[in-house]
Write a structure and sequence with these properties.
Layout: E1 5-10, H1 22-32, E2 38-43, E3 55-58, H2 63-75, H3 78-84, E4 89-92, H4 94-99, E5 102-104, E6 110-112, E7 119-136, E8 145-157, E9 165-169, E10 179-180, E11 182-184, E12 187-190, H5 196-199, H6 201-212, H7 223-234
Parallel strand pairs: 1-2, 1-3, 3-4, 4-12, 5-7
Antiparallel strand pairs: 5-6, 7-8, 7-9, 9-10, 11-12
Helix pairs in contact: 1-6
This protein binds glutamine (GLN).
The site of glutamine has 12 residues, from helix 2 and strand 8.
Amino acid sequence: MSDPVRIGLVLPDVMGTYGDGGNALVLRQRLRLREIDAEVVEITLADPVPESLDLYTLGGAEDSAQRLATKHLQRYPGLQRAAERGAPVLAICAAIQVLGHWYETSGGERVDGVGMLDLTTAPQAVRAIGEIVTAPNLPGLDAPLTGFENHRGGTTLGPDATALATVTRGVGNGVGDGGEGAVQGSVIGTYLHGPALARNPQLADLLLARALGMDDLPPLDLAEVDRLRRERLRAR
Ligand code: GLN
């Protein structure tokens, strides 16, 4: 039997608002439904960050928790090493900010980020809260991406990062260019909570296909996921 696919859930003790830890469970379940053995490896503030896992997910956080996570990822650069060798990384909300060059908290403090994404984040006048719908820019994704956003930070991309999607409804990166999220190498960042992968199974399968080194995965016929997607697309 081959080794299980190992999915890193990075710092769920400080990053994981709105059930973002569910993204790791969705990845594991979509593998198991295809009879591929998989396990979730939780990496907490008590652990160094391993660089050997197959893919990684990070969730959102409040400003103070986000700062703790940033320091930990700088001290133990396993995530950076893994991304350099092409392991997929999914970063939600505060995690986009943490993986950038720097972010400014709503209290006005500028914090150096991990530097994996060419972007910076500064607080905006109005907090972005609510349902968001976007049109993906990434090849392999054609269904709208939906989620719930709640962030004060607005994110400006540099030339090495591109937006994951264009906002149809909601705020997204919030700096006036209509962009949502960031893609750079094997790292995908998005402001979508949900958890995002429960609501956007195409994105889940794209991450899994990349982790397995496949062009794409055979589709799963999951009526309940489709029902949830339709319900969320109707939400106002
Ligand atoms: N603290 C960050 C902000 O408000 C991120 C919030 C979140 O992850 N939901 O911009």
